[in-house]
Design a protein that fits this description.
Number of helices: 8
Structural class: mainly alpha
Radius of gyration: 17 Å
Strand content: under 5%
Distance between the termini: 19 Å
Shape: globular
Largest sheet: none
Length: 180
């Protein structure tokens, strides 16, 4: 058994109620699950206890800024896909103590929604915020918007393509546990 799984169990941790898990909450609600269900508790555990680096905390801050808009733009069918393709697998990985892979998969899933739902050309504020985070604001003051938008979409495409392949390889190790 994985040694990480012998550490403090995620279900024993109380989440910070002031910080909602927007995407996971929308997903479990679409599945008809309660607010205290295991996938939501495990997502909160992952956020509150396993995301500690400066980069991860910065990503969480960006998440709280953009996630409500993602939720507003998704429908029930999209949440069903998010459940099937991501949340079930992330839940299984957290239960296995595979926190790094679970974080990577959640980050990938969120970035996919960011790319699909809030980086449209007309979403100037959202595009600029994601650009500032993802590309560290390089050229943000002097590059024209159309160029920043193009750079962001290119970076998202390249990053998501790379992560899709990388995560596909890593998930094979746990395929029986996460492909229920």
């Amino acid at each position: 058994m994985n040694e990480k799984a012998n550490e403090k169990q995620p279900n024993e941790i109380k989440p910070d109620p002031s910080r909602a898990c927007f995407l996971t909450t929308a997903t479990v609600e679409a599945q008809g699950l309660p607010d205290d269900c295991e996938p939501l508790q495990l997502a909160r555990y992952l956020r509150d206890h396993e995301m500690k680096s400066k980069k991860e905390l910065s990503a969480v801050d960006l998440y709280y800024e953009i996630a409500p808009e993602i939720v507003a733009r998704c429908d029930k069918e999209e949440w069903a896909v998010f459940w099937r393709d991501h949340i079930r697998k992330i839940t299984a990985l957290v239960k296995l103590g595979e926190y790094d892979l679970a974080k990577d998969l959640y980050t990938f899933a969120t970035a996919s929604l960011v790319n699909k739902k809030i980086t449209h050309y007309a979403d100037v504020r959202m595009v600029d915020r994601v650009y500032s985070y993802g590309l560290h604001g390089v050229g943000q003051t002097w590059l024209p918007y159309w160029m920043r938008y193009g750079l962001l979409k290119t970076a998202l495409f390249a990053g998501l393509s790379y992560q899709s392949v990388r995560l596909g390889i890593l998930k094979r190790k746990h395929s029986q546990a996460i492909d229920m």
